[in-house]
Design goal:
Elements lengths: L16 E3 L2 E4 L2 H12 L4 H15 L9 E7 L4 E5 L32 H12 L4 H14 L1 E2 L2 H14 L5 H5 L11 E2 L2 H12 L3 H4 L2 H13 L5 H5 L4 E3 L2 E5 L2 E5 L6 H13 L10 H21 L16 H8 L19 E8 L5 E9 L7 E2 L4 E2 L30 E4 L5 E7 L4 H15 L4 H6 L3 E5 L2 E5 L4 H9 L3 E5 L10 E6 L5 E5 L6 E4 L1
Parallel strand pairs: 17-18
Antiparallel strand pairs: 1-20, 2-10, 2-21, 3-4, 3-11, 4-7, 5-6, 8-9, 9-14, 10-11, 12-13, 14-15, 15-19, 16-17, 19-20
Amino acid sequence: MKEIDFNIAYPSYRPAMMGRNAVATSQPLAAQAGMRMLMQGGNAVDAAIATAMALTVVEPTGCGIGSDAFAMVWDGKQLHALNASGRSPAAWSEAYFAGRSEMPMRGYDSITVPGVVSAWVELARRFGSLPLTTLAQPAIDYAQQGFPVSPLVSFLWHKNLAVLKDQPGFSACFAPDGRAPRVGECFKNPDQARSLSLIAESQGEAFYRGELAEKTVSFIRQCGGAMTLEDLNSHRTDWVKPLSRAFAGGSVHELPPNGQGIATLIALGILEQLDIGRYSPDSIEVLHLSIEAMKLALADLDNHIADIDHMRFPADMLLSDEYLRQRAALIDPRQAGDFSYGTPREGGTVYLASADGNGMMVSYIQSNYKGFGSGLVVPGTGISLQNRGAGFVLKPGHPNCVAPGKRPLHTIIPAFALDGNGQPLMSFGLMGGPMQAQGHLQVALRVMQYKQNPQAAIDAPRWRIVGGRRVMVENTLGRNLLTALRALGHQVEVEDAQLNHLFGGSQIIQRHPQGHYIAASESRKDGQALVF
């Protein structure tokens, strides 16, 4: 019997969805988990937590129980921001990594304390209305009974297995038959189901101080790592004040460092200085100036941004009008510049947005980082451990240099926008490592400056800066724009929008002035937006 062909052979258009409650994320099954909570009387935070827990099961290539997370919550009156990223083990001094030129990308010395479990617990404690055991049930069911593997997840699973098959615990969990699951094949992870049950029943205590903590630390130390029970016990989440920048009659909000969201705000601020609104959205002027503004923002990110407790100066200094005018003055409208910054790395991440009929909205992101993270999976638990330690540098004196109990620079960033009256406009995000800040800029520009609907803003061709003057663009970008970019000195390379996940998957929930929501999800990927 011939197998079903899951390739998308023809261009498709996905309309924006509308309703009074909404969930949007990268996996339909996870979106359904969140929608179940809303239909059971839960709120947007309940939906976000259920969706996030389900994503660790149905999209393990991007996240797991050993992930980190960040969130933004509009509670109906004000915006709150949660940093649930973990810190480095106490033993991680510069001397610990002596003799190495860069941080390990995989293995036990890339693992910082996982924070995602604390995000679920803290969000539920402060804003949730349903028990954590209820929120975890869809994820537990998917793990216990199995779920059909989607096309993109299957592709990434096969790709990463070739790299990670020999990492301790990886193949036993994610390739028990010696291979990655095929598209549409059901995959079960009963060990993960049990871990999720323990986490929900203990309100996270099992993960940081109980049975799962002991198994995790014992395994990491057996592999040669330095993490201790005290490292896990001392983990804490932080409610922080978002950074913001006025833009296009409203404002964009990002978490403060240790994330890269400030790069989006810097670039938007530069574009405001250049009066970007006088050009049409798909003009060469907007494309060129946006790329140049993002180059400057990435240079600042690379040179200055780290754990906020270790930065040389307050982060909001980079967002002052005076500083942004100075940066904008460096841009030549007739020629591509070459602003120095470090070459970004590929990432593995999941994003979700949720909203309910009472006005609560959530922007949430969690990630193992580079495709399955460190590659280490704690035996008998289904807990795949992130490799966020790879975000540190080993350059002495750099604000992001590795140190004990320190948060590394993070790629993952949820975002939120308010309108000119200080009311919610949209929760939005975009996955894909270094693409995230660049994608936030492109989405915000289209929705806020040019009033495009969320689905159009997501579907529009995207670009991403690789380094120097190198710019990758999707093959849906018009030929005339390609020619014009090259004439300005950009080194342009074209990639297939459907086949290359490095342009990121995006989700948006926009609040309509009449009170309902417009939800959109990535049509290039496996994403889904559900409303009722």
